[in-house]
Amino acid sequence: MAGFAPDSRLNTEETFGPIAPVAAFDDEDQAWDIIHRCRLGLVSAVFTRDLDRAWQWAEKLRTGIVVVNDFTNYWETHLPFGGMAGTGSGLGRLGGRHTMLEMTDLKTIAFHVGS
User: What pTM was estimated for this model as a whole?
Assistant: First the structure.
């Protein structure tokens, strides 16, 4: 869905469905304004050819997993999976030893750098 309002339910609630909202923005400040209206923190994706910019965005995004240049259903059982602390997405982490580390604030960043 293109052209949704940043305060709409598409940007503020978890849908768990086959919905792909797309927001247009004029600059990065406007993009961050849209992002910060959402209190969720499970998975996000960044698409860019600029790896330096990808790292900047991946480090700044408040989600438990950041996927770069790939789809957002990235989940390997040996990697931590769960929402970022302080967000409205889930409680704790699943996967490997990270299940026991519920009180940590882990972030996974996965890059797809091939063509």
Answer: 0.63
Q: Is the pLDDT of residue 37 over 80?
A: yes
Tokens 């970022």 belong to 84
Structural domain that includes position 22: 1-38
Same domain assignment for residues 2 and 26? yes
Q: Are the beta carbons of 87 and 66 closer than 8 angstroms? A: no
Round to whole Å and give the CA distance between 27 and 32.
Answer: 9
What confidence score (pLDDT) does residue 15 get? 77
pLDDT above 70 as % of the chain? 70
- Residue 31 burial class via C-beta count within 10 angstroms: exposed 0-12, middle 13-18, buried 19 and up: middle
